[in-house]
From TrEMBL:
Similarity comment: Belongs to the EamA transporter family.
TM spans (from-to): 50-67, 79-97, 103-120, 132-150, 156-176, 188-206, 221-241, 248-269, 275-291
GO terms under cellular component: membrane
Subcellular location as annotated: Membrane
Top-level taxonomy: Bacteria, Bacillati, Actinomycetota, Actinomycetes, Mycobacteriales
Pfam families (alphabetical): EamA (PF00892)
Classification via PANTHER family: EAMA DOMAIN-CONTAINING PROTEIN (PTHR32322:SF2), INNER MEMBRANE TRANSPORTER (PTHR32322)
Record domain EamA: where: 17-146, 170-290
Membrane topology according to the record: Multi-pass membrane protein
NADP keyword on record: no
Record protein name field: Membrane protein
Keyword Transmembrane belongs to the record: yes
Keywords: Membrane, Transmembrane, Transmembrane helix
Length: 303
């Protein structure tokens, strides 16, 4: 009896740690979004390649000698992760922003919690949790309110935004088996490496005519994105996926636009409104509902 109680307490502790890690990752990404405003004139894919390259180098230095070898199958999955969750996401995002308003794109990508709440359990061959789906729906509603601008969008732009949504979901779904097999640290390190290589190849193809060295401000922004929104956020997110189900972690994706709003307002690069802060409150309700659900989930087999 005491053994089962101890195991249950350990699982609850791991679940709460997982929620904190997911929250920390989302805060890191959200707070770093404002830094991207300094890169609007810099070759986009070059910036992404450098960002992921710095993040990969930093993690290789931190975990030198502790990263496992990967099999051919794992290497293939890492390549898919880099192509979809990193490079693919960024390419679709950039192309979508060239056609439609950023708020429209953000609203579409804001559906990540719902997609993960449904796709995560199905991939693990179990039924989606009603609590997780409801929480994801609440979070998505709040995220859309925070980001929606009311601008019209053309079909191609919406399709590209949907591609960015797919890439964002792939960042978690494709990585889950890797996190189980090689651990969060190795998954984060190898994912950043794959992202740097693939973004670098794309940059050579499209950025050569506008290639230049970054300014001091652009260098600072790239470094911040590399350390905080890449190395830090990747490690926190994959460590969270190692402890809690992906549908629970996915709810915290709604925190990203909220943190971006707060950071943007503080830095004077975003406009605030009562409605947007109402949306932030709705996100908070959904996140709390998702976090409370971790009490009922065993983390022993979390996807």
């Amino acid at each position: 009896m005491s053994l089962s109680v101890s195991r249950a307490a350990e699982q609850r502790s791991g679940a709460w740690l997982g929620t904190l890690l997911a929250l920390g990752s989302s805060v890191a990404v959200g707070s770093a979004i404002a830094a991207t405003t300094a890169l609007t004139e810099f070759p986009i894919m070059t910036g992404q390649a450098v960002r992921y390259g710095i993040a990969a180098a930093l993690m290789f230095a931190l975990f030198w000698g502790r990263l496992p070898r990967v099999s051919t199958a794992q290497l293939t999955r890492i390549a898919v992760l880099g192509a979809t969750g990193l490079a693919g996401f960024n390419i679709c995002l950039v192309l979508a922003l060239q056609r439609v308003d950023a708020g429209v794109v953000g609203a579409v990508v804001g559906a990540v919690p719902v997609v993960l709440a449904l796709a995560g359990p199905l991939m693990a061959r179990r039924s989606p949790s009603m609590r997780a789906v409801v929480a994801a729906g609440i979070v998505t509603t709040g995220a859309v309110i925070v980001q929606w601008s009311g601008a019209a969008a053309d079909p191609v732009g919406l399709l590209l935004a949907a591609g960015a949504l797919a890439g964002e979901c792939a960042f978690s779904l494709v990585a889950i088996p890797l996190v189980r097999e090689i651990g969060a640290k190795a998954t984060a390190t190898y994912a950043a490496t794959a992202g740097a290589v693939i973004c670098g190849i794309v940059a050579v193809l499209i950025d050569v005519p506008t290639a230049r060295l970054p300014t001091m401000g652009e260098s600072a922004a790239i470094l911040y994105l590399a350390v905080v929104a890449s190395a830090g956020a990747f490690l926190l997110w994959y460590a969270a996926l190692d402890r809690i189900p992906v549908e629970t972690a996915g709810a915290f994706a709604g925190v990203v636009p909220v943190c971006a709003l707060v950071t943007g307002v503080l830095l004077g690069v975003s406009e605030s409104s009562p409605l947007r802060f109402v949306g932030a409150g709705i996100v908070g309700v959904g996140v709390v509902l998702a976090a409370r659900g971790t009490r009922q989930v065993s983390t022993a087999g979390s996807p």
